[in-house]
Amino acid sequence: MSISIICVGKVKEKYLRSAIDEYAKRLSRYCKLNIIELSDEKTPDNASGKEETLIKVKEGEAILKNIKDNMFVIALELKGNMVSSEEFSNYIMDLGVRGESNIVFVIGGSLGLSKGVLERSNYKLCFSKMTFPHQLFRVMLLEQIYRGFRIISGEPYHK
Question: How many domains does the chain have?
Answer without folding.
Answer: 1
